[in-house]
Amino acid sequence: MRYVQLAGTDIRCSVLGFGCARLMGRLSRRQSLRALAAAYEQGITVFDTARSYGWGESEAVVGEFASGKRDRLVLITKLGILPPPRNRLRQFLKPLVRSVLSLATRHRLTTVTGAIRAQIQQRVSSQVQRHYDLETARRSLDTSLKALRTDYVDVLFIHAPLYEQIADGKLLDYLSEVLRAGKARAIGVSTDIDSTNRLLAAFPSLQVVQIENNLLNCHLDALHRKDQIGVITNCPFGRQLLVENLTQLMSTAPAKASEWSKETGIDLCSADGVGKLLLTYALATNPTGVVLCGMHQVEHIARNAAVASVDPPAQTAFQRVVRDIREALVERTCSN
Questions:
Q1: pLDDT tens across 285-298, in order?
Q2: Domain that includes residue 99, residue range
Q3: CB of 161 within 8 A of CB of 189?
Q4: Which residue of 32, 147, 163, 273 could cross-link 23, Cys pair, CB 3.0 to 4.6 Å?
Q5: Looking at the 3D structure of the chain, how many domains does it have?
Q6: What pLDDT is stored for residue 215 in this prediction?
């Protein structure tokens, strides 16, 4: 595993981070702990969670995993989005839904898994509670620290705010207080690229940002102050839709797929190769930062860690191929 020091901080960490959004939601406690342990064994030290993840239970399982090795981990959490209220029926149904999703995935019933996930996403979205007031922020951080079994986090983010929601600076002032009190080593925002840039311009105290960045949505190109702050990117696989579109492109254009494979040294005719290309791109475009992946299968964690363990490819040739693939994807999307 390669390691970097996040710009503007004293935080040294792995270039590949473990996204904890699925823990205690799609994954059971046992599955969550197994995935966390597998990531740690591969040299991953960054674990990114939030108050809202796993219906409010992700932080607790991360805290359980971190016990006894806190000083070797970089724990990230977020405030601003609260989990939905506890619901006994939901707690009862979660294991059943996990089993159905697992069965459908095993038998490659993509229509079924897609429909179930869409229903879950719609349900979650309808219950999202966004609160950016100071009192809620204080309670949220206290709850997070208790769940994580620690007295500090390495990075504390404001979760998905629009610029207008925190433009008065009160919440940013509170984060600065948290920093001075030693409850966080660095502070920042995790939101869309437009709000990120406006907030960076207005608040020099921000040290770290988290934004989406992948082969199609290359938001890192538009990020301001990128050489002065710690940069964490997410969604390298485009929430699986990008993987599916790229796989279809390779199957319908085998000659080009073969040519691109030779130029990149990655077998793009295989599903594993497509994933490797996307993660390689994400790592190459953020060489001094961290790329977060949502992963839970041991073999996938090992595969992604292997990609993150080698130096990024030479920019010129690799980026030329990426541009060709991006243009082909856009053209294919437009023609459909």
A1: 999 999 999 999 99
A2: 85-127
A3: yes
A4: 32
A5: 2
A6: 95
Residue 72 CB coordination number (10 Å): 9
User: 210 and 119 in one domain?
Assistant: no
| Residues ≥6 apart with Cβ < 8 Å to 277 | 215, 246, 264, 266, 268, 325
Coil, strand or helix: which one is 66?
helix
Question: Which pTM was predicted?
Answer: 0.89
* Cβ-based burial of 278 (10 A; exposed 0-12, middle 13-18, buried ≥19): buried
Mean pLDDT of the chain: 90
Question: What is the residue type of 123?
Answer: R
Structure tokens at 233: 């990117």
The letter for the amino acid at 177 is E
Taking residues 202-207, report their average pLDDT.
96
**How far, CA to CA in Å, does 218 sit from each of 213, 221, 234, 238?**
5, 6, 11, 11
Number of helical H runs and strand E runs in the chain? 13, 12
Strands (E), 80-182: 81-82, 129-130, 153-159
